[in-house]
Amino acid sequence: MAKILNLRNPSQKMSKSSPSVQSRILITDSPQEIQSKITLAVTDSIKFVTYSPINRPGISNLLDIYCSITGEEKSLSKRFEWRMANELKSQLVDVLVEELRPIQGL
What we know:
This protein is mostly helical. It has four helices and no strands. It has helices spanning about 30-40, 55-70, 75-80, 85-105. α1 (about 30-40) runs antiparallel to α4 (about 85-105) and α2 crosses α4 (about 85-105).
């Protein structure tokens, strides 16, 4: 299982003790809060999505979260390879909202 990193500072692990509420996803977050947090998640200026935890920790963290939820392999990054970060973020929001829906009773 991948270590999930802070959405605002991907050099740190995701933690409820982080001072920024934008740094983490909580099971109580509304779909709008999830969308806001993922949209604001730190990425880089490289145009297309690639998996490289050392060189691209922000994008790699989003891919790790996506793979952890969907059960897909890291090779999934090939699916996003010629896509922009906002496409990955949009799909991640969708899977997070769907994963949390039964827990939240929505």
